[in-house]
Structures are given as C-alpha cells and as structure tokens.
Amino acid sequence: MAKAVYPGSFDPITLGHLDVIRRAARATDELIIGILRNTKKEPLFSLEERKSMIEDCVKDIDNVTVKVFDGMTVDFARENDANIIVRGLRAVSDFEYEMQMAQTNHTIDPQVDTIFFTTSLEYAFLSSTIVKEVGYYGKDVSHYVPEPVVRKLREKFSDGILK
Ligand code: ADP
Fold first, then answer.
1. Percent of the chain whose predicted confidence (pLDDT) is above 70
2. Predicted TM-score (pTM) of this structure
3. Is 108 helix (H, G, I), strand (E, B) or coil?
4. Total tally of structural domains belonging to the chain
C-alpha cells in the first residue's frame, strides 16, 4: 500500500498546494497532509485555522486526512507508517533546498523516499507569501486560493488593514 505524507506550512493553502494534493492522492492509497508547527516562522493563520481550511478544501477527496506535526518530516512519516514524502517543485529556485532535504531525509531513514510533483504551469508563480501580500492590500485572491480561504483572508484583512 502506498501511504504518503505531504508536509508544509500551508499558511494558507493555495490552489498550487491543492493541485499537488489532488495529483498525489490519485497516485497513492492514502495521503496525510502534515502541517508543520514551525517555531521559526510567524504565521498569519493559527494551526487550527490552517487545519480547518485544508479539511474544508479536501472534504471531497476520500483518501486524504490532515494532521499537525512537530519535528522532522521523516519521523512524522514513520509514525504514520508512510514511506513516501510528497513535495511540490515550482521553479529552479525550489530545487536546491528540496534536493538537500530529500537526500537528508533518505539518509536518516532509507525506507522513506521523496516524490516531487512539478507544479501545473498556471500555479508556478504561486506561494502563500504572495497570496498574503495580495490579500493584505485588499485585492482579489480568488484566482490563487480555494473559496474557504478567500473568505478567511477577507476576515483577516479588512480594507487592507490587519485586524
Ligand atoms: P514549506 O514552508 O515547507 O515550504 P509551503 O506550505 O510553502 O511549506 O509548501 C509546501 C510544499 O508545497 C512545498 O513542497 C512547496 O514547494 C509546495 N508548493 C507550494 N506552492 C506550490 C505551487 N504553487 N505549486 C506546486 N507546489 C507548491
């Protein structure tokens, strides 16, 4: 059985993430989205908010669940009996870091492999950071994020001013 984890910050989930999730869910039997509790980054959305937005967006995909985790992705994978880590690749700029992480994880646990999904062209420029930037200035973000996230971003930013 192919069981995979897809780790990330998802602050917030974008259409680029969702595209990777749909494709990875088709390629695996079970996919667990792991939201990393990252102490180095100050997030816009709390872990609970991020989890509930993702759950809302993936409720129509049977084999996908959402969890929060701490620490290294390889450990999260093993704790969930998964031997695949899913990551998305947007541009050459992602490549160096992603390759380093994949090789490190594979050294720590040779049973775990990383599989990359190259971004669909229409989402190649998209990142959570860009979405927050555009949302902050009160612009339309509906081309970048799923509907539940559009609503949450509107709630967070009112007339371009952070509540
Ligand atoms: P992290 O902080 O771990 O990079 P992100 O939430 O930014 O977390 O991204 C999680 C994963 O999704 C990463 O592998 C990233 O490359 C991938 N990703 C982010 N945006 C896109 C996109 N637009 N298309 C494809 N993959 C993406």
1. 97
2. 0.93
3. helix
4. 1
